[in-house]
Specification:
The chain is an alpha/beta fold. 52% of the residues lie in helices and 14% in strands. The chain has an 8-stranded parallel beta barrel with strand order 1-2-3-4-5-6-7-8, surrounded by 7 helices. Strand 6, helix 9 and strand 7 form a beta-alpha-beta unit. Helix 1 (3-13) crosses helix 12. The structure holds flavin-adenine dinucleotide.
Length: 300
């Protein structure tokens, strides 16, 4: 990120909540469960699948962990009653990976069971590289216990190809592939965008080779094109993969995929912890921070 862009992002992070919200609301369904459900029902009526995410990460306070746990259960019940199919995505640091590792597994297993009883698939998002092994271990244990769960692999991590092989060797896995959003060291992560893209496509190919189910999570037109070529060459049917995008991003690409009949799932974040999520989005895409500033100038 250039120095100027960095400065803009820093400025945005000091702005009043109401101003940041004006811009963030494009990417966040709202603060309450009903807000998330409304967006999901709208997307469903336009042919898109969904995965629901309650915002929050690195929660340190046990009471907050319990609150998130209860909110996810409430969300699962509401999703079930609405009769619209959908998934949930969780982050292990919301469930005590750092704050209460002893009880992490039982919490996640209970939620997975509860979701499963309500016909809802649970995917564990991938966080920074210090959490990768624990996350994949937990995913494996849940799978071995017969739960329908998914994991995420990040194409920037050099270990990811080995992880695919390990995860898929005994039974097909269900893996979302994304580039990866955290800052990781060159020792463990590719830094060059083309290397990350190549690794992404290699991981996708391995998943197909091993009869596993990939969720192709990207808004990068080059990667989408290369993934579509892979799908075409292998003559795959739409039941064998899906594309995923974030709420509020990639509208033209969405349309192209839907028009061509590819399954597309939208990741719908909502919740009270929206500010930290938005600032991360701004850091990832400094262009957004410029727009916020432009908005403010026009407000003033
Ligand atoms: C459904 C989904 C789930 C994800 N889950 C995880 C996860 O579990 N762990 C993890 O580390 N990362 C996750 N990510 C984030 C991912 O790793 C990337 O950081 C992010 O998707 C940007 O990469 P890209 O492939 O879209 O390519 P980029 O080249 O970064 O983006 C392509 C274009 O898309 C637009 N764009 C991309 N991202 C955004 C954004 N956030 N806001 C606005 N515009 C944007 C920009 O215009 C950009 O030029 C997820 C992404 C998606 C789509």
């Amino acid at each position: 990120m250039g120095i100027l862009s960095k400065a803009f992002v820093e400025t945005v992070s000091y702005m009043p909540e109401s101003v940041v919200w004006r811009f963030a609301r494009r990417y966040i369904a709202g603060t309450e469960i009903c807000d998330g459900l409304k967006v999901r029902s709208d997307l469903y009526s336009r042919g898109m699948l969904n995965t629901m995410d309650i915002l929050g990460e690195d929660i340190e306070d046990l009471e907050q962990i319990n609150i998130i746990n209860r909110l996810y259960c409430e969300l699962v019940s509401e999703m079930h009653s609405s009769q619209i199919p959908g998934n949930i995505s969780i982050k292990l640091t919301q469930f005590g990976l750092r704050a209460d590792p002893v009880n992490l597994f039982s919490r996640v297993r209970e939620l997975t069971e509860y979701a499963g009883e309500h016909g809802i698939f649970l995917r564990i998002d991938m966080e920074d590289a210090t959490t990768t092994s624990t996350t994949l271990d937990l995913y494996n244990v849940l799978r071995q216990d017969g739960h329908k769960v998914g994991a995420v692999l990040q194409a920037y991590l050099k270990r990811s190809q080995e992880d695919v092989i390990e995860l898929s060797k005994n039974a097909p896995s269900n893996i979302r592939i994304c580039k990866g959003i955290y800052k990781e060291s060159p020792d463990i992560a590719f830094q060059n965008p083309d290397d990350i893209r190549d690794n992404f496509i290699n991981i996708l190919g391995l998943l197909f080779d091993m009869n596993s189910y990939p969720a192709i999570a990207t808004h990068d037109p080059i990667l989408i094109k290369r993934s579509l070529e892979e799908i075409k060459q292998r003559r795959l049917s739409p039941e064998q993969y899906e594309f995923q995008m974030l709420h509020g991003v990639g509208f033209n690409l969405r349309k192209m995929l839907l028009d061509e009949g590819h399954p597309l799932r939208i990741y719908i974040p909502f919740g009270k912890a929206w500010r930290a999520y938005s600032l991360r989005r701004f850091r990832e895409n400094p262009k957004l921070a410029f727009y916020v500033l432009k908005n403010i100038v026009s407000i003033g």
